Amino acid sequence: MNATTGRSNPLWTVLAVLYAFAILFPVIWMASMMFKPADVMFARPTVFLFTPTLEHFDYVIELGFVWNLLTSFLLCTISTALVVLIGTPAAYAFARFEMRGKDDLFLFILASRMGPPVCLVIPFYLIFAKIGLIDTFAGLTLAYMTFNLSFYVWVLRSFCRDLPVELEEAAALEGWSRPQIFRRVVFPLLRNGIVATAVLCFIFAWNEFLFAFMLGGKTVQTLPVAIPKLITSQGVRWGEMAVVGIVALVPVLAVVIALQRHIVRGLTLGAVKG
Amino acid sequence: MTMLARSRHTPEAVTRPAAGCEAGGLSLAGITKSFGAIKALDDVTLAVEPGEILAVTGPSGAGKSTLCRIIAGLERQDQGVGRFGAEEFTHLAPGRRRVALMFESYALYPHMSVRENVLSPLRAPGGPDRQLDHDGTVMEMLKLLEIDQLADRSPSALSGGQKQRVALARALVQDPRILLLDEPISHLDAKLRHKLRGEIRRRLMRRSTPSIWFTPDGLEALSVGDRVAVIDEGRIEQIGTPEDIWLRPATVGVARLIGDPPMNLIKGHVEVKDGRFLFIRRGMTLPLPPHLVPVARHKVEGRVTLGLRADGVSVVAPGTEGTIPGEIYSHEPFGKHDIVTFSIAGEVRVKIKTRDQSSFRIGDAAALLCPAEGMALFDTETGKALALP
Known about the structure:
The complex is a heterodimer. By secondary structure, chain A is mainly alpha-helical. Chain A has one domain (63-272): MetI-like (MetI-like fold). Helix content of chain A is 75%, strand content 1%. Chain A is built from 14 helices and 2 strands. Chain A has helices spanning 3-8, 10-34, 55-62, 65-96, 102-111, 117-131, 137-162, 165-174, 178-207, 210-215, 223-226, 238-258, 260-267, 269-272; strands spanning 231-232, 235-236. A two-stranded antiparallel sheet of chain A has the order 1-2. Chain A is globular, with a radius of gyration of 23 Å. Chain B is of the alpha+beta class. Chain B has 2 domains: 2-250, 3-Layer(aba) Sandwich (Rossmann fold), CATH 3.40.50; 264-379, CATH 2.40.50.140. Chain B is built from 12 helices and 20 strands. In chain B, helix 5 (114-123) runs parallel beside helix 7. The two termini of chain B are 38 Å apart. The interface between A and B is medium-sized, with 18 and 25 residues.
């Protein structure tokens, strides 16, 4: 049986649907909770048919979650953009140029990602407290950049190494300067790799809690840090949590869907290059 | 074309190494390059005249690619200079040398169409006037190479042969001062290689640009070059016309590289008996032909290597006068010719290329006839062809 007939087999279709359902069930469950009135939220037996309500949305807006969402989005977008801006030339340089102590320097960069984040957050806090970056947008951007940059450089370097160096040499012989070669030849070929890696960095930053909690908190409060506000003395506000959970999914989904073509190519680049 | 005919058949081209220099061709003098302890190029001196194709051949690791990259400016030589005419170029950046290099891997930009690939060097800052409309030039070049119908395709949609032509178009469109072809047809199948070899040579012959064709295949070098340079262990072993290289290999290294099968090399020594000069090896005595006697005279009792060209010797019936007795060791019929391995005294094996379709049976007694023109003599110690001191 070849792969094509395997995919069109009804048994496989059923299994695929079941698998997709298992993966999507929490999302579907959350989506239903968003609109469920509080009195039927945990009713037994489970109520499937109910009059949808928007009361959870009202409360979430009232608590200022829109600002948290905006903070998270801006923080992740800006830090990821900076990572791409700084990390792409760095990864290219690590892949292409010979310099003294290159391997040691590369390991040093990677090492910043090796320790558990909780070990790093304390020195970060002490340093940031000294230089007045605690609870500032710039401070958190810097912190996110630090831990994403090493990952980005590490992954993108392997994409750069996969590019045949002859392409750059051919362009150099034609008379293009190095920045022009980077823009005309290297960048278009790296685009998928850059997008795929940047999306991963964006998701890491989006889901991040510890740094946002320790280094931000009051004025700069990201979505993951704001969620515990919904655990109140009167109980957990499940409906509102579902709203925030689903809303938190939307930007990531939007980014992934918009850039799907590049991500798939980027993630499979090593497998299909020819 | 006339220039090529001249350079291919006149010995002046061989004996005037700096000829290219005067005529605006390329000349290299004393190019040396080491990578750590390994000497990749050792005092390489050569010249290519305008319109001439120099084929550089040698085993892998001989220094061909390093030489190619040094001319292109992708590597820097430790010593030596390169000139276009009288103008030194070895200090210039690659983009300012006007060198077109056709890479072994073709190096076509995968994100650009065929047209954009060929257009790329014309649009480069160092290229011709950027304001000009180069589309016409590009299409003309594509038409010349019969790939104009592929102009809007991406390189990934092309076959190996088509990619090779696009790479050639991109090189030729630049109007370079020298065209370097680094193993341009190595990755193609035998049939296509055969077809394109002649085709590329025809395209290059129409131009006044000097070209260097690098290939590890000795026979390919002989078929495409007006002259051939054989390089081994970073040193130029011999530069000459294909006929020179084929008939008079300068070293054992050249003899080993050229030929299909390569020249048979048999170690032994020279003795004089009854006034006759003989090549002696256990189980084998061969009188040297008159043209080798003057050179052999200086090597009497010295160690020499006898070279027998596979297509210069033949198998005859045993007992024929002036032949070496032995037996048929193996026989490979190829249809167009046969390769027979002849065993002398059970220890020397000689490969013979013959058109004689008679049935050779393994183990049959036979004799080896060695005419004068199929023989060469080398100094075993230096590996060089014996010459008059």
